[in-house]
Amino acid sequence: MDNSVIKFLQDAQLDHKVKFFDDLGVWVLNDMKLVKVDEHLRDFSKKEKQHFEKALQKLEKTKEGVKTDEKATLCSGQKLGEEGEVFTVNGQSRTKHHEAEEDREAPASRGCCASLSASCARTCRPCSAKHNPLPPGASRGDKLKHAFLCPPHGLVAKMAVLVTSAVMLWACLWAVTGKEALPGGNFFSILVLLICCTIGGYVSQLCRLPPLFGMLVIGFCLRNIPYIDIAKHIQPAWASSLRSAALVVLLVRAGIGLDPVALKRLSCVVIRFAAIPCFVEAAAVAVPSHWLLNFGWDWCFMLAFVLAAVSPAVVVPSMLHVQEERLGLDKGIPTLAIAACSINAVIAISAFGVFLGIAFSTGELALTIVRGPLEALLGVVYGIVLGVLLWYVPHRHSKSIVFFRTFLVFGGSLFAYFGSKAAKLSGAGALGSLAIAFVAAQGWRRQGWSNDKNPVGAVMAKFWIIFQPLLFGLMGAEVKVEDLQGGNIGMGLAVLFIGLFLRLVVSFFTVFGTDLNMKEKIFMAISWFPKASVQAAIGPVAYDTAKAYNAGPEVLALGKQILTIAALSILITAPLGAAAIALTAPRFLKKIPKEEENIDKDNMDFEAQGDNESKYQEGESSKL
Q1: How many helices (H) and strands (E) does the chain have?
Q2: CA–CA separation, 98 vs 119, rounded Å?
Q3: What membrane topology was assigned to this protein in its record (predicted)?
Q4: Which DSSP string corresponds to 260-307?
Q5: At residue 81, does pLDDT exceed 60?
Q6: SS3 content of the chain, % helix, strand, coil (to 5)
Q7: According to the model, what pLDDT value does residue 588 have?
């Protein structure tokens, strides 16, 4: 369609939606844009025909006397000037209108500036991607050369954006904080760790490994290799807060993605899977450590429950990736693992607190024992109350509904996690964050937001791009080589592997009695393998408590050994467990298409509705 047609239709001041036809077909002028439609849609009213006639008459008058050169053709992308005649100059379409405009502007444009511009264009032409297209069947050398042509494009453009953003972020930090953003400062070290771990995760993905593997390794190297050990300048309070915030992002994403139907069906299995392997591994670690490490029984069980927790920071993102790949959704396997993981962490942390209180006689023993379940209950109640509130606040027709829902669910989860720590009720934080997102997502589903099309989940996924390298980089930086130096490392490794072996076996048998097949049971046992975040959180607690109580050198040595074994468990099990989940999930779990999942959920809802109706009929008959 000629630009002149568009211009004259616009000048005709027609209605917002007008149909128009010419030799090329039927066109619709909608909001000043021409859209071609099928010729069968020619359904013109009398008023519309009058508009067309006026517009066409005006168009015909302006096109009188226009002569087109025989060699020139009107193609898509060529523009017909108001003075009509089209001809080609240096491969470009020109019109008399253009020539007249250039003649009028000749005194201003032709001169030194024009010649300088032309010479710059000729000089830069070899570096332009537009004038040097990649030929078909190009070699790797040609592709590499083309990748660096201007303007930046492809992977080079992405890297340029990242580098520019990093430099701008550092400049802002330096302008605000001064020395803290210079080498040796806290913010400079955090920024370098973030960038390096992001690159490490990308390289790990290229090697077909989970991103957290590369991030953990980079974090460990930035803490322990001389001359590049910038992670030692990160303040412990900042490291702890950033890890906690990243874990909250992870828990919110997990809560939004939980399947309520599968969770209801597997509720008993979730509790069983969270508790039984935890207590069995604790016993399997405590007994050998008494004989191999010469620990007292209170310290044996402190070490046991440090090692008995699986890591939400490793299991949850791995299961979210499995869920995104639509693996195991027919049996609710990702939901089972995510829900049981949080409960397992609460059990381990609570039991560790009990034996810590016994070892250092802090507080009443009875209160310490019931403290764990009370904290878990408090977190669930808080999550339910705030989650139900988010069904109605903000209003479902609010223009900024995505922003406010994201802000409220993330802010409420942060308050649950950090507020519980401030109130010394740390067991309530993780479950509260998970419960807020889960309950809120149930109400949002009824309002039309599904798991696959949840804008809040999409925003939290963007947050995870930043917080993932921070979480795993800081966890890798928590492992210090000096903590691994000791005479009992071999015995500590033996205790660790004894517990891991029994945990795998018991986890496999725990899921018997479900509809999981043999491969799926093996996968569930493998997913209960990695340790990281809980060990990084409570591993140093015994040693720090011993120092705070001015304990003797023997007690300090026991705390140091627990810290060492916890660091070894992170270094060994986190990357191996994540890699094992990523490699076995496609082979052991069934991948279901989206349509099949929707049909299964509809069938479950129909069956539930039928059960409710049958119960209602039975109740009515009993009344009669």
Answers
A1: 25, 5
A2: 22
A3: Multi-pass membrane protein
A4: HHHHHHTHHHHHHHHHHHHHHHHHHHHHHHHHHS---HHHHHHHHHHH
A5: no
A6: 70, 5, 25
A7: 92
- Asked if 527 and 581 count as a contact pair (C-beta separation under 8 A), the reply is yes
Residue 141, both tokens: 């050398």
Can you give the residue ranges of every domain in the chain? 154-182, 251-605
DSSP letter for 311, please: P
Cα–Cα separations (whole angstroms), residue 259 to 250, 439, 512: 16, 11, 21
404 and 398 Cβ atoms separated by less than 8 Å: yes
Cα–Cα distance, 108 to 245 (Å, whole number): 60
DSSP symbol at 482: G
601, pLDDT greater than 70: no
Q: Select the more confidently predicted residue: 315 or 431.
A: 315
Q: Which pLDDT band holds residue 253 (cuts at 50, 70, 90)? A: confident
Higher pLDDT, 520 or 90: 520
Q: Which fold has domain 251-605?
A: Na+/H+ antiporter like fold (1.20.1530)
- Cα–Cα dist 507/528, whole Å: 7
The three-state secondary structure class of 93 is strand
- Both structure tokens of 472: 């795993």
439, 379 in Cβ contact below 8 A? no
DSSP alpha helices (H): ranges in 294-400?
297-307, 312-324, 333-360, 365-392
- Cα 130 from Cα 146, distance rounded (Å): 10
pTM > 0.85:
no
How far, CA to CA in Å, does 110 sit from each of 97, 103, 105, 106, 388? 18, 10, 8, 5, 70
The tens digit of pLDDT for each residue in 58-80 reads: 655 655 544 344 333 333 333 33
Rounded to whole angstroms, the Cα distance separating 588 from 328 reads 9
Residues 252 and 435: their CA atoms lie apart, in Å, by 9
Q: pLDDT (tens digit, 9 = 90+) per residue, 278-332?
A: 999 999 999 999 998 888 888 999 999 999 988 888 888 889 889 888 898 888 8
For 410, the token pair is 């993330």
